[in-house]
Amino acid sequence: MKVRKSAGRGPFREQPFFKPIEIENICEEALRKVELMPSSAEPIRIERFIEKRFGLTPEYSALPAGILGYTIFGSNGPSAMVIAQMLADAGTVVAERRINTTLAHEAGHCLLHSHLFALADMPLDLFRDEEVHTDKPKILCRDVPVGAYDGKWWEFQANAAIGPLLMPAGLVTEVVEGWLERGGLLGIPQIPLTARVAAAQAVSTQFDVNPVAAKIRLEQLFPKTNQTLL
Amino acid sequence: METFGAYIRFLREKKDISLRELARRLRASAAFVSDIELGRRYPSEDVLRHLAEELGATVEELMKRDPRPPVEEMKRLAESNPAFGLAFRTLLDKEVSADDLLELAKNRPTRGKP
Lengths: 230, 114
Description:
The complex is a heterodimer.
Chain A: E1 2-5, E2 14-17, H1 20-33, H2 46-54, E3 59-61, E4 67-74, E5 77-84, H3 85-90, H4 93-117, E6 138-142, H5 153-166, H6 169-176, E7 181-183, E8 188-190, H7 196-207, H8 211-221
Parallel strand pairs in A: 3-5
Antiparallel strand pairs in A: 1-2, 4-5, 4-6, 7-8
Helix pairs in contact in A: 1-5, 2-4, 4-5, 7-8
Chain B: H1 4-14, H2 19-26, H3 30-37, H4 45-55, H5 59-63, H6 71-80, H7 82-93, H8 98-106
């Protein structure tokens, strides 16, 4: 992880940089530490992970429209996590899976950004929000279209933790093994274009995540490449 | 003494069940179970029985921690014996804490026992 002064990019004094592999390792290690890394492909108990790893139980409460959840931080790390009640009340498979990705996103903040709140002289005013009123510093997570980057690097990084937490790389590879082909000069495993939808569906079912999350995860692990290249 | 909600959370964690997993078993919403654990709501008799089953406790054990004040019972006592009315008022005037009361009750022998 590299760090640089934030230079006004958001409310933090520092901006950490993580390589994708670093985020993978941080997430996998965290799952192992609390014995919630399964030995074969199955849904990750993300809520239990948060309880065991951070010692807090996510709360389900009414939040303003467009806000999926938030985490309150103290100098010792996360102290509360709130998820939108409308997701919990919907009672559909899609909404339940949305809770999984929201919890994983918040867990990403806890794993990657807790230390930023321990820094002295934090400009707390930037964490105060009229929509969700608490006087404590928090990261408020809104419902943003997938793939949209609005300069909030901390949200981008938390999103990058969703895949590794809910669909660990090794277990995803097990699920899609049957579709993998060695391609290019280096024999890098790839999923052919014709099989990508089926593979994403299998990952979605196996890990209990929405198809769009599975599709993004496969893009991370097995990016579409031009077969004539490496 | 632990509150009802804190005790439910304690039992749930002891069984290694997450809040949503418990909600699913109870066929209730996660928000409802969250509210129970946070002391904002109290379950119906049916849910209480179901909770006890899922958490390996008895209904009586859970009911001991019922946080709701027995208002009707207190009214009845105060009407039948004015000394109770005075006693309740004194508790409020002297700002006696819940812990003080529980401590007093704990140190008293149970009725009917020597």
